Amino acid sequence: MEPFKFCTRLTLTQVTGLKAFTVPELLEGIKGADDAVIYHHTHRFIKQSHHLVPEGANDFAYWVTNTVQADRLGEELTAIDIVRYPSLADIRGAFVETLERHLAENPGPARTVAPGREFNFMRSIRFSLPTDCAATDHRTFIECLRRVSVSSLYLHVFEARLRPPYGVDDFSHWFRTNFNDETVGREISRLDPYSYTLEGLRQRIIRILEKRLEEVSGA
Amino acid sequence: MPKIEEYAAAAGANAIDELRGIASRLTGRTILNVNSTAVGGGVAEILSRMVPMMTELGMKPRWELVKGGEDFYAVTKKFHNALHGTPQELTVSDLQLYRDTMRANLEALDLDADIALIHDPQPAGLIDRKPPGAKWIWRCHIDLSNRQTDVWDFLRGYVSRYDAAVISSPSFSQDLPVKQFMVPPSIDPLSDKNRELSTQEISDILDRLGIPLDKPLITQVSRFDRLKDPIGVISAFRKIQPYVTARLLLVGGTADDDPEGAQVLSEVRAAAEGNPDIIILCLPPTSNMEINAIQRASSLILQKSLKEGFGLTVSEALWKGKPVIAGAVGGIPLQITHKYSGILTRTVDGTAYWMKRLLHEPEYAKRLGENGREHVRENFLLTRHLRDYLLLALHLESGRRDFIHL
Known about the structure:
Chain A is 53% helix and 16% strand. Chain A is of the alpha+beta class.
């Protein structure tokens, strides 16, 4: 059995210089954005704001809601569930579709925000860094979970779904592959970052595993 | 000088482990830092802490200073003011003096290093002698969003030849042929201005300064400058006085060497006259512990700026777990998410409304402060600042890849 080696995700922010002052400009920017831009404004947003906003959000929705003050569109962009998409290209497609629909239904002049309040498109340069935490069973997995950073948690639970096997988090995959443990796999794969802060998520996963450990030990 | 391990209590053990993990990929690299002053100013303050940390992490950092006469510094001061948006007249001889001083420094300085961090405009011209294979980064600490075109065009000729440029906020970005990265500034949680203080230390300092603690303190710490809107702060406070029991404390510098500051100070004193609950305090620039104690003793911190560079005083207050009401300008919105980690306002009335509301809802105010402290822990401490520089060095060494396994 391969031990589960915990890694962590670090990012460096590149400023593209591209800006949007209106919703149509935001749409054009998203259409032309590469994966590193989409990652920055969706996944990185959740990770950076994890202690602030347990509800779902991304930079695009935040700007449209709080700066453009287009409440309905902001709500629709907030509702885009980024962890359910198998790729960053699919996430981009979801934002483009929502914005295009909004603009088709709301023709006419777009509101221009004041200088200084524009949307700045940025990119995340991503780094994976191994930690010294490795688990071989439920018990050591719980010990590692208590120690690793929330960035590590985010990487393995949500970002993992963007790489093969697509749509599956690393934790579920490891428990299924090594212990044939569907229970843990199912419970963890149902978690979403919008219902918890990442610290809350850590506690939730630990509780799932502790309960499972009791069941396995008692069997 | 504190050891890296001592930052674990503030930044978290994981942040220190990450820093060590990243640094292990840069062991033995020579890292050159160049700026124009060894003491005074934010850059020197940060480098004096960061350079020993790089050594402790196994790298070989050096810190060099560009040297020039008073006339050189007069020219670079013009650069500085022009880039900040205060119009300056740069003559042909000013620019020639800059080139000549750079040439003299190129002869005198040892620029041999794997990675170079060149800070601000003063040493930017050193790029003329970048060693082959080295990675050079121009680190700009200045808000360039209102820069004077001709001065920027002159500097752009140098900056365009670097491997990367680093700015503090996306709004400072410029049209450049090189990649620009955002690395916000940081506070040092172990410095006198930010370290933990005991209740006794706080009360001793406030007692010495003659600040009574019988009413909740609302404090703004800022130099007496119109862009910090001290008169607006007093107006907002006067609006809420019929409804709350509180004291307003405006803390600034002595303004001895700043004629405009002295003028603003006298206007502030006039605006506060006859109001026993407004205290105006002038402290010397070395009063770090005093500022720390005042912030910690306050119930509410204001930073009602009308224009701001990055506004790191906001992070200083948030780090102390204080609810902050601040102007939504410059880098402040990067530090405060409205209604989650603080309050952003744009008017005197808005500031008054939120002052009253936070004083009446201490539980909500406390939660804002707690969220703010966590936001600073993750984003605005010195350890994150160093981590970003090291990640940038690795990115440049990797051939500028977007995805890097360390």
